[in-house]
Amino acid sequence: MQISFESRYAFSPSETKQMDTTALRTNFLIEKLFEADCIHLTLSHYDRYITGGVMPVQETISIGNPNYLKANYFLERRELGIINVGSKGTVTADGESFELDFKEALYLGKGIKEVTFSSADKNEPAKFYINSAPAHHAYPSKKVAKADAEIVELGSAETANHRVINKLIVNSVVSTCQLQMGMTELKSGSVWNTMPAHTHDRRMEVYFYFEVPKGQSVCHFMGEPQETRHIWMQSEQAVISPNWSVHSGAGTSNYTFIWGMAGENLDYGDMDHCAITELK
């Protein structure tokens, strides 16, 4: 088992607008999340948010004792959200096992000392997409199946943004300190997500794109509403979105993405909307 850990600094709008394509990708794009029997973790200095991927194949993988967090164990001062984007697998937390199928989620609270990941079939491994944020209180662990999600349908085929939002780890479904996660599925023929775009000054966010068909891509938009930038992304890649930045995308096909966010506010509707005609 290998653990790959990377730390990403935070940048202001004035610094970001000076970046070229390579600099934008280096600082905001997370290109590799899943590798056999590895854990890939990226810590963003925006709200100390961790984004990662765990893909157990030949062995059960433990998240271990992370020296890079200066902690005795990963969840000593953190909470963890997990969504399985692969085949069936199991997460075990201090001896309690949770079986997760495709697109099922799990919340683990502060204070759990041992977390392991395994696949039901090594030939069709699980892919555990994980997000983590600092926590001040220990809330109970909870599995959230798609049937348990709070579902909202938005957009229309006429504006190419007909989508279903599955709120999986949000305060109306499960108690958390600050972590929130959900999954948005675009209908066939729709390509735009989160349009009209918005910002939320009290929360940062990370988008993880998957189910992007082979040979297709997603163009992710970021930056201030009056100074946008774009990053071309492939399936199973993630992108960091600062709290001052819009976060939206358009694909060359429909796709699915997972949004995760953290900050001082758990109000999902706390957004500063940007008029489409005013974006630049």
What does this structure look like?
- This protein has one domain: Jelly Rolls (Sandwich), CATH 2.60.120.10.
- It is built from two helices and 24 strands.
- It has helices spanning 13-16, 21-28; strands spanning 2-8, 29-30, 38-44, 49-54, 61-62, 78-84, 89-93, 96-100, 105-108, 115-119, 128-134, 142-144, 150-154, 163-169, 180-186, 192-193, 198-199, 203-210, 218-224, 227-233, 237-241, 248-251, 256-263, 272-273.
- It is globular.
Query: What would CATH call the homologous superfamily?
Result: Jelly Rolls
Q: How many β-strand runs?
A: 24
Sheet-strand content, in percent, reads: 35-45%
The spatial strand order of the largest sheet comes to 1-3-4-11-6-9-12
Low-confidence stretches: none
What count of domains describes the coordinates?
Answer: 1
Main sheet summary: 7 strands, mixed
Please give the radius of gyration in angstroms. Answer: 18 Å
Average predicted confidence as pLDDT: 96
Counting helices, strands and paired strands, the structural category is mainly beta
Q: Span between N and C termini?
A: 45 Å
So what's the overall shape?
globular
Topology order in helix (H) and strand (E) letters? EHHEEEEEEEEEEEEEEEEEEEEEEE
CATH architecture: Sandwich
Q: What is the count of DSSP helices, taking H or I runs of 4+ residues?
A: 2
CATH class group:
Mainly Beta
- Do you know the CATH topology? Jelly Rolls
